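During the reporting period the student researcher (J.K.) took over the structure-prediction task from the postdoctoral fellow and processed the backlog of single-chain submissions. One of the processed entries is reproduced below for the supervisory committee.
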Amino acid sequence: MVLQEISLISNCQFMLLAGAVILIGWIVSLCLHEFGHALVAYWGGDTSVKDKGYLTLNPLKYADLGLSLVMPIVFLLLGGIGLPGGAVYIDHKQLRSRGWDSAVSAAGPLANALLIPMLAAPFWLGLADQWRESWFWPSLAFLMILEISAVVFNLLPIPPLDAYGVIRPWLPAQIQAKFNQFGRYGVWVIFGLLWFVPSASRFFWDFIYTVVVILDVPLEAVVQGFRLFDAPLNKVVLIVGLIVLARKLKPPHNSTHNAQAWRWVQRGNQLYKSKRYEAAIAAYDKATEFEPTFSDAWYWRGHALYNLKQYEGAISAYDEALELDPDNLHIWHSRGISLHHLKQYDQAIASFNKTIEHDPTNAEAWYNNACCYSLQGNISTALEALKEAIKLAPERLKDRAQEDPDFEAIRENEGFKRLVG
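J.K. obtained the following structure tokens:
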């Protein structure tokens, strides 16, 4: 009897240890997924991701912990499906081309894909030959299959998944708008198919198991890892942990803003992420009703209007935000871009100069100033601004300038050729 009790205690410990390794490993991979999006966005021109904290691998910095952590963990508990997170808000208008826009979407699944051989390596190297007597190696095998499922899941070109994000920039605006309306339901439709349609579920998992076989990892190890993780004790502990996580990992903004306003901003950001800009604007309007001095609500409202090509409305929203936060260089920069689209170049230059005043190393502001000066025919000043921009970000901005139609008037200028050559 005593031996049975000892064996039971040991089994419980193994289950809890396996659950902890799988859960922690999955959370780390979610952070890496988001980091991949943010890093490529930073390389592609959206430097705001650095200030938002997306390059720190800190889950507290994500704009919506529900999308980035809680929802993927719930999917994991329900069916062992590796649903990736999705709460890094990229300022797509800052990206220098559609190619970079596609690369940003591809970077998240690529991060998951890079983890797969790392998790399979112990089995290749013979380190996990005794996996039957261990809880650790089966846990890695199950974590590996989660990463595979995350990659396969994201290969589906359905909004809001990353494969759709890869092709989205190349679709006509009307088609994008129609697909974006479907975005809020896409994940749930796929999950419903996997959960309630046996043939869809069988095809999905057969494909994943085929990948496991190709990787030469024992399927039995994967099954053992799943059984350890799927134990009722683990689920109880993980559900309690999830509740604690949801309470503890709250963005710090909640303590400084009206609770109702903060919830509407979060709602607006989710809608913005799904490209449902009209609905996002309505949510931001609700936020400003509860808290008129919520500068982020005005800022994101401006972004949503910008994406709808309502540039005058966007400028008005940015002006409201600047009344509340006059030193925010991102607001000044976004305002300048909208003015650029309205061909109000003097005012755009003034906005970009405000950005440079707060951050002289902002290559994008120097570059956009150069664009405005070029469009005005002010060649010497355009070249001076472009020189500063390329000095700060040569690899990124030389190629961009070569193809930018804003520089058509000075493309044959010898000074321009020297700068971008």
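The committee noted the following: The chain has two domains: 2-250, 259-420.
J.K. will present the remaining backlog at the next meeting.
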